[in-house]
From TrEMBL:
It comes from the Bacteria. It comes from Streptomyces cinerochromogenes. Residues 15-386 form the Glycoside hydrolase family 42 N-terminal domain. Its EC number is 3.2.1.23. The lineage of its organism: Bacteria, Bacillati, Actinomycetota, Actinomycetes, Kitasatosporales. Residues 397-602 form the Beta-galactosidase trimerisation domain. This is Beta-galactosidase. It catalyses: Hydrolysis of terminal non-reducing beta-D-galactose residues in beta-D-galactosides. Pfam families: Glyco_hydro_42, Glyco_hydro_42C, Glyco_hydro_42M. Belongs to the glycosyl hydrolase 42 family. CDD domains: A4_beta-galactosidase_middle_domain (cd03143). Residues 611-668 form the Beta-galactosidase C-terminal domain. Keywords: Glycosidase, Hydrolase. The keyword Glycoprotein does not apply. It is an enzyme of class 3 (hydrolase).
Length: 672
């Protein structure tokens, strides 16, 4: 049973940490929250040391006051288990619970997430404090959602201690059916005399003199994700036992800098999928990352989700922390809503005056309410109130991009033909032309039901199991249009090379065979010729490709592979399958994907000028068209007669005007 969040309209708020401030500030907090339209705050995330000042000794007096105050002011609480930051007394009693890094160094407490995920002492203490909170606040009227932990794996995705080693061995015995021969076969341990004769010989992939076994590393990544998931579900179960109807969430980090957890395995365990997203200062078009991350989070959730954290301005953890420009806070937040978020929250409510994140922006900045940030926060609250009816609406898409965390991990292991390949970079390269064209996208697993999509893209699927490969081939065979990027299908789920030529699992459906890759050096490119724009080039990769049923769309124009196909298309069953054996320059890739889209019959949500983002959410009675101007020039778009622009409440004629750097949201009734 999936439990839902009971707050009116779209949720709005942020992390509230009143323990950082004297009680006389709390009344002002309530007044300002009402002024801004805040209706949900996360509380208690980093309060373990105050809630449990000594083992088994609890002090709930502060939390009692805070929750009562929130309820009196009509603000719901997302009550957190504070287990992301164990107190100092815990580590003094249990120094064995401290994490150990790959080089064998034991890390000290003094920040957050300084615990070993496999530590029995940590698990016992975490479940104890979660149980105490659940028992006390299960029926408090302010508590509308449980916030389990915070950003699992952000700082301790892997621990290499002996306790983790023992837990890893238990996980392996379950995975391989207690069959050591099966593990040796899966890991290919005949190479470099790595054969294991006893389970106790197996260690985490600690620092060693040469390249570690790839399958060993891959299983370690799987184990680390599962170890943290086990902690999450254990806390969730404690909370559910006390409050069966209150939904539980934890905040994912579906963003460019984090890849530690297999969120596809995590999402089904939560009532509500939440995400944290922060801009990377060096990304000149961070609006594309917002869109990609939002689409991926929505796809993981299977529908609407919550943005649990983002920033009002600068963060504090990048080499240079860029402030947001005029209108950027509003554009960022509403872009997340456009991509399926049913709530918007920030880290944090009031900017800290002390501590590691004192220079991280907040809803109430150091300057106070006499600031642009505060004005933007209040305006956003009004916007979200005006968009209340959008809640629960869906985001239909005819295009799917295949996304697989295990394939991402495997591609970026050492000793590849090219160390320049980055999974997210390849996915974004293919996603960007779709974003610019205004084409809606879902992200799917290789074995997902693909019947709803006209077009499926796999920018890179280096690792794929037999079921996933067969599913994608079957999709094309039964009428779908499939496009696959280079170095896909190369290995199976155990990271074993699929013999017989590349691209391995996809040779048959793509109708090509390659016997040798020719990776390109950094900065190197190869000219392309054929049905591509003049001056077309490819980077990162090339390979000696031989058609085996496919037609050549483009070829390499020079170098050792002159005349060899670089882009191919094969009719397959009643569908078609395309292969890109290089990474074309952005204009060429966009032109190729336009051709593939046209073949599949995929149209944009709405034709718009370059730099104007158009996204649709669909409700039972109306579509909601989000128009976001990233050009600073403004734009005018056609809309259905009888539509209403929700942010202003004005009826439109047959067009809507979005202000320079602004946002418009148009309700288009279905019966018009």
């Amino acid at each position: 049973m999936k439990r839902t969040l009971s707050v009116p309209g779209l949720a709005y708020g942020g992390d509230y940490n009143p323990e950082q401030w004297p009680e006389e500030v709390w009344a002002e907090d309530m007044r300002l929250m009402r002024e801004a339209g805040v209706n949900l705050v996360s509380v208690g995330i980093f309060s373990w040391a105050l809630l449990e000042p000594a083992e088994g000794v609890y002090d709930f007096s502060r939390m009692d006051k805070v929750l009562d105050l929130l309820h009196e002011n009509g603000i719901a609480a997302d009550l957190a288990t504070p287990t992301a930051a164990p107190p100092a007394w815990f580590f003094r009693a249990h120094p064995e619970a401290l994490p150990v890094d790959r080089d064998g160094r034991t890390l000290s407490y003094g920040s957050r997430q300084t615990f070993c995920p496999s530590s029995p002492a940590y698990r016992e203490a975490a479940l104890r404090i979660a149980g105490a909170l659940a028992e006390r606040y299960a029926h408090h009227p302010a508590v509308r959602m449980w916030h389990v932990h915070n950003e699992y794996g952000c700082h301790n995705a892997a621990c290499y201690c002996d306790t983790s080693a023992a837990a890893f061995r238990r996980w392996l015995r379950e995975r391989y059916g207690d069959d050591l021969k099966a593990l040796n076969d899966a890991w290919g341990t005949a190479f470099w005399s790595q054969w294991y004769h006893d389970w106790e010989e197996i260690l985490p992939p600690r620092a060693t003199g040469a390249v570690p076994n790839p399958t060993h590393q891959l299983d370690w990544r799987r184990f680390c994700s599962d170890a943290l998931l086990s902690l999450c579900t254990a806390e969730r179960d404690v909370l559910r036992a006390a409050a069966p109807t209150v939904p539980a969430t934890t905040n994912f980090m579906v963003m460019a800098t984090f890849d530690a957890l297999d969120y596809r395995r995590w999402a089904p365990e939560l009532d509500i999928v939440s995400n944290d997203h922060y801009l990377i200062s060096t990304d000149p078009e961070s609006q594309i990352d917002i869109a990609l991350s939002g689409d991926l989070t929505r796809s993981l959730a299977g529908g609407p989700w919550l943005l649990m954290e983002h920033s009002t301005g600068a963060v504090n953890w990048q080499p240079v922390n860029r402030a947001k420009g005029p209108g950027e806070l509003r554009r960022n937040a509403l872009a997340h809503v456009a991509r399926g978020a049913d709530g918007i929250a920030f880290f944090q409510w009031r900017q800290s005056k002390a501590g590691a994140e004192q220079w991280h922006s907040a809803m109430v900045p150091h300057t106070g309410t006499d600031s642009r940030i505060w004005q933007d926060v209040v305006r956003l609250g009004a916007d979200l109130k005006a968009l209340a009816e959008v809640r629960g609406s869906t985001s239909p898409a005819e295009v799917a991009i295949v996304w697989d965390y295990t394939a991402r991990w495997a591609l970026e292991l050492p000793a590849q033909p090219s160390g320049e390949l980055r999974y997210l970079d390849l996915v974004r390269a293919w996603y960007e032309p779709l974003w610019r064209a205004g084409v809606a996208v879902d992200f799917v697993a290789p074995d997902a039901d693909l019947s709803a999509y006209r077009l499926v893209l796999a920018p890179n699927l280096y690792l794929v199991d037999d079921a996933g490969a067969a599913n994608l081939a079957g999709y094309a065979e039964h009428g779908g249009t499939l496009a696959v990027g280079f170095h896909s299908g190369a290995v199976d789920e155990n990271c074993h090379v699929r013999l017989g030529g590349y691209p391995g699992a996809f040779r048959e459906v793509l109708g090509v065979r390659s016997d040798e890759p020719f990776p390109l050096l950094p900065g190197e490119s190869v000219e392309l010729t054929g049905a591509v724009p003049d001056g077309a080039t490819g980077t990162l990769w090339s390979e000696r490709l031989r058609p085996a049923g496919a037609e050549t769309v483009a070829s390499y124009a020079g170098g050792p592979l002159a005349g060899v196909p670089a882009v191919t298309r094969r009719p397959y069953g009643t569908g078609s399958a395309w292969y890109l054996a290089t990474l074309p320059d952005p204009a060429t890739l966009a032109a190729l994907l336009d051709r593939v889209r046209a073949e599949a019959g995929v149209e944009p949500v709405r034709t718009a000028p370059p730099g104007v983002e158009v996204v649709r959410r669909r409700g039972p009675e109306a579509d909601y068209l989000f128009v976001i101007d990233h050009t600073g020039q403004g734009a005018e778009l056609p809309v259905a007669p009888g539509s209403t622009e929700l942010l202003t409440g004005r009826d439109t004629a047959d067009t809507v005007r979005v202000a320079p750097g602004g946002v418009a949201v148009v309700r288009e009734p279905h019966d018009r």
